[in-house]
Amino acid sequence: MRIAMISEHASPLAPLGSVDAGGQNQHVSELAGALAEDGHEVRVYTRRDSPDLPGEVPLRDGVMVEHVPAGPAAPLPKDELLPYMGIFGEWLLGRWRDGPWTPDVVHAHFWMSGLAALTARSRFPVPVVVTYHALGVVKRRHQGAADTSPRQRIGYERVLGRQADAVIAQCSDELDELVNLGVPRERIALIPSGVDADHFNPRGPVAPRTAAPRILCVGRLVERKGYADVIRALPGIPGAECVVVGGPPADELDADPVAAKLRTLAGATGVADRLTLVGGVRRQELPAWYRSADVLACPAWYEPFGLTPLEAMACGVPVVAYGLGGFTDTVVDGVTGHLVPPRDPHALATTLRRLLREPSRRMAYATAAVDRARSCYSWRRTAEQLTRLYARLAARTPQAVGA
Ligand code: UDP
Questions:
Q1: Which of 28, 187, 266, 380 has the smallest CB count inside 10 Å?
Q2: What is the pLDDT of residues 190-235, one digit of tens each?
C-alpha cells in the first residue's frame, strides 16, 4: 500500500528531547520504518521549518520525508501552527491530485495534522486515520491556564474524531477519553506503540555512574513530565541520585527555564548535589543511559502513551510510574515495576526507596520488563495491526485503491 503519514510539527528527522520534539517524532519514524519493512511505500509530510531543507529527504528504504511549505520556513511553537493547517491541507491536495504519487490511506498524527488531512480529503477521496498523541481535553484538565493550545483545539478534536474514518487509541485510558469526547466506539482501534528492542536492549555500553543508586528520568524538559516530583521525593530516598536526560543540548541547559526551575527546587529541597541534568541526547546514546539506571521514574502529570518506560523496560530497567495514561497499560504493578498514586511525591519516595533497597526484586522486575517489552510491544506488531485497518478502510474507498 501507499501510506501518507502527516506529522505537521513533529518531523522524524528532528533531534529529540526539545520542547516540541519527542515521542511523536519517534513514533512516526519507527512506524514508518516498520511499515516500509513490510513492503509498503510511506511518505511522511511535515512542515518545512528551515529554508535549507530540501523538498524531499529519504529517511530509509521505502520512506520519504516531504517538507511542506506552510507558514514561515522557521521553527515555530506547535501551538502557533493552526493558522497554517489550511495551506498545509491544500498543498497535500495539490500534490496528490497533480503529482505522480497518490496515497491509499492517510494517517494523521496530532489533531492539526488531522485537520490538514480532512482539508485534502474534502476533494481527494482517501480514508483518514488519526492518532491524536495527546488530547486537548486532557491537557486542559491538567495544565489549566498554563495550557497554550489554541482555544479551538478541543472543539476541533471532537469534530475530527467524528469525521475521521478511524481513530487510534494508544492505550485503554485514551480509549475512554475518546469515547467521552464523542468519537464513535466502533471507529476506535486500540493499537499501542512499540519499541525497537534491537536498539534498546540490556547488553552494551553503560553511561558513567557512581555507586549512588540512580533514578533516571528521560523525556522532553517540560513541566508536565513531573521531574519536580522526583526532586521533592529525593529527601525521602537517602543517597540516591536523580539523573534527567532530555531538553536542549547540555551546553544550552543554562538558558532553559524548566532546567532553572528544577535546579532552584533542588537547591531549596537540599538535594542539589544529587540532581544531574544531562540535556538532550541522541537516540544512539540513550540505551547506555537506560542501562546505567537502577530504576526509571515516570512522574508525568498525564501521559497519552509514553515511549520511555518501554525503552527502559527493553533495556532491563524496572519502572516506577504514576498510575495514569499509558503507564497503566505498559507497566505491570508488582511485575515490571510499580504504579503509584499520581502527583504524590511521598508515595513516589516510599516506592523508590524500597525498590532501591531490594536488588533481587529489581532483577526479577528487569527480566519481566524485557520479556514484556519484547513480546507485547514490537513496532512490527503495531504495523501489522495498522495495515489490516488501512486495508479494510481502503477497500471501502474505491477511488483511492489503484488511483
Ligand atoms: N528522547 C531522546 N533524547 C532525549 C530525550 C528523549 O531521543 O534526550 C526520546 C525518547 O527516547 C522517546 C521520546 O524522546 O522515544 C519521548 O517520548 P515519550 O512518548 O516518552 O514522550 P513525549 O515526547 O511523547 O511526551
A1: 380
A2: 999 999 999 999 999 999 999 999 999 999 999 999 999 999 999 9
CB contact burial 50-65 (16+ within 10 A = b; e otherwise): eeebeeebebeebbbb
| pTM of the shown model | 0.93
Closest ligand 1 atom to residue 21 Cα is: 23
Same-domain check for residues 391 and 362: no
Which residues form the domain of 189?
A: 2-194+379-395
Q: Give, for 255, the enclosing helix (H) or strand (E).
A: none
Indicate if 175 and 265 belong to the same structural domain.
Answer: no
What pLDDT score does 240 carry? 98
| 115's grid cell | 485537520
User: Is 15 part of any domain?
Assistant: yes
In ligand 1, the atom with minimum distance to the C-alpha of 311 is: 11
- Residue 340: C-alpha distances to residues 56, 67, 371 (Å): 45, 42, 22
Total count of domains within the chain: 2
Instruction: For ligand 1, atom 21, name the residue with the nearest CA.
Output: 23
Residue 200 falls within a domain, yes or no?
no
CATH classification at residue 224: 3.40.50.2000
Instruction: Flag whether 310 is in a domain.
Output: yes
The b/e string for 5-15 (b: 16+ C-beta within 10 A; e otherwise) is bbbbbbbbebe
Find the 145 Cα to ligand 1 centroid distance in Å: 25
- For residue 57, the CA-to-ligand 1 centroid distance in Å is 22
Pair 184, 224 in one domain:
no
Index of the ligand 1 atom closest to the CA of residue 26: 15
Which residue's C-alpha comes closest to atom 14 of ligand 1? 22
Shared-domain flag, residues 305 and 388: no
Same domain, yes or no: 28 and 140? yes
